[in-house]
Amino acid sequence: MISPKDFLKYLTAGTLFGFVLMKSEVVSWFRIQEMFRFDSFHMYGIIGVAILVGLISIQIIKRFNVKDLNGNGITINPKDATQVTRYIVGGTMFGLGWALLGACPGPMFALLGSGITIIIVPILAALAGTFAYGALRSKLPH
Q1: Whole-angstrom Cα distance, residue 114 to residue 134?
Q2: Could you give the count of Cα atoms lying within 13 Å of 46 in the half-sphere of its Cβ?
Q3: Cα–Cα dist 70/95, whole Å
Q4: Which end of the chain has the least Cβ crowding within 10 Å, N or C?
Q5: C-alpha 45 chain-centroid distance
Q6: pLDDT tens, 32-89?
């Protein structure tokens, strides 16, 4: 069970993340459409910075043996090279959904928090898809 102190940490981090998403216009449908039409560098710049931050963070975790909130060591397993087709298909499906909807999972909640209530429909669809995957997971190839 999560403690109230940890809940407050996660709530604060999520709120700050949502604020950054809104201020950087990452959740803007127009910015996303600009990206997929190659009309603007804005989103590509943000994605590039995110990749750079991720690379630096992983190196810090590996070099300084960073621990999680419970004091356990963080391990990052290498990707299975035999699964490249799965990664390409999954990434393509994600990209198509992102292009058609104009939002990916993280920003959907930031949009809801900013008052864009129509995003409830894709959130419910995402939850239904997650539930369906959980129910069918044992029957799917992995």
Answers
A1: 30
A2: 15
A3: 34
A4: N
A5: 17
A6: 889 989 999 999 999 999 999 999 999 999 999 999 878 899 998 888 888 899 889 9
